[in-house]
TrEMBL record:
Originating species: Methanofervidicoccus abyssi
Positions of the Prepilin type IV endopeptidase peptidase domain: 13-112
Taxonomy, superkingdom: Archaea
Domain Peptidase A24A-predicted C-terminal archaea intervals: 210-312
Pfam families according to UniProt: Arc_PepC, Peptidase_A24
The name this protein goes by in its record: Archaeal preflagellin peptidase FlaK
GO molecular function: aspartic-type endopeptidase activity
GO CC entries: membrane
Length: 345
């Protein structure tokens, strides 16, 4: 049996193991240790047999990379990417991390990032779509005027204003109403430009570009909504917290008393950076969850504070999470297709 035949069999075995891990991740939100151990034993052994020390270097380099990326990645995900590295160490690498593994991490993370945005759109589309239409009318009208009068850097200035407007409309109700009303002018805007300057309308494919503007603004709106705390979330009693739950709340503890504050993605990220640098202000402890979620010791502390009446709420806000391993399976299949069918990696 040739080396490539062995590699193909190992890829198939890993696919089966990933399917099992996906099922368990969906069912229990945990990746079974036995699956990780089997992948590790098989892939390190075969990787070393086929590729020698390159497989070992790839294993440790991927482990270091995943630990660095661990701010937004669970422990099971780190282990999966790391155990797959030895059997993909056949080609180009970046700092000994195989290119297919980097691609696998990127595809998996990219797909999983879409799900919160989709849920935000489902929840807030009645606000996002009219605002995107209204701002597209506003942007298109001013862009035409700037084009007629040859004002430099017009598009850059307009896009900056439009992005700021999305943020303002989320925070200021009266401004949001004004932008919403502009959306009703969409047909008037398109027809008006066509009548006033037919050549401009046709040469610039205005109808197509208007649709593109709206789509771009919807995507920008989704990101801004996520950054300002619009993630899909649920309330959960403190007594029912489990290890791995990801809080949207930030909990500040001082002198045995806890203060709870809701925080959007941007604020949590800033606090996370501050805490990495050892900055926690006057507080004895700040509980802020990352990709690994709540730890058992933090849960015990919160439940103790709750029993003693030293925390002001009965429930905490959790961010809705999604099983990550199924997206790894999709990325794994894409990488294998690129390798076997297209031969590009």
């Amino acid at each position: 049996m040739g080396k490539m035949d062995i590699l193909t069999i190992v890829y198939l075995i890993n696919f089966v193991l990933l399917l099992i891990a996906s099922y368990m991740d969906i069912k229990t939100k945990e990746v079974p240790h036995i699956v990780i151990i089997l992948m590790l034993l098989i892939n390190l052994s075969v990787g070393y047999y086929l590729f020698g020390l390159d497989a070992i270097f790839s294993f440790f380099a991927t482990l270091i990379l995943c630990l660095i990326l661990g701010v937004g990645m669970g422990g099971g995900d780190v282990k999966i990417f790391t155990t797959l590295a030895p059997i993909f160490s056949y080609g180009d690498t970046i700092l000994h991390v195989p290119i297919p593994i980097l691609l696998l991490i990127g595809i998996s993370a990219g797909i999983v990032a879409l799900f919160p945005l989709i849920n935000i759109f489902r929840k807030y589309w009645k606000s996002i779509v009219p605002i995107s239409l209204g701002l597209s009318v506003f942007y298109g009208s001013l862009r035409y005027l700037f084009y007629r009068y040859k004002i430099p850097y017009a598009s850059l200035l307009l896009w900056a204003y439009v992005i700021i407007s999305i943020y303002i409309s989320r925070k200021v109700p009266w401004y949001k109403k004004i932008i919403n009303k502009l959306s009703y002018l969409t047909p008037i805007y398109l027809l008006g430009i066509y009548i006033v300057d037919k050549n401009y309308f046709i040469n610039n494919n205005l109808l197509i570009f208007f649709v593109i503007y709206v789509f771009e603004l919807i995507l920008i709106s989704l990101v801004i909504y996520a950054l300002t705390g619009a993630e899909v979330s649920v309330k959960k009693p403190i007594s029912q917290l489990k290890e791995g739950d990801i809080l949207r709340d930030v909990i500040y503890i001082k002198d045995g008393v806890a203060k709870v504050e809701e925080a959007g993605m941007w604020k949590r990220f800033k606090l996370m950076l501050d805490m990495e640098m050892g900055k926690k202000g006057d507080y004895d402890k700040i509980i802020l969850t990352d990709g690994d979620g709540l730890r058992e010791e933090d849960i015990k502390l919160l439940q103790k504070l709750h029993r003693e009446g030293n925390i002001s709420v009965e429930e905490l806000t959790l961010i809705t999470t999604y099983p990550f391993v199924p997206f790894v399976v999709i990325g794994y299949l894409i990488v294998l297709i690129l390798h076997y069918y297209f031969g590009v990696i």
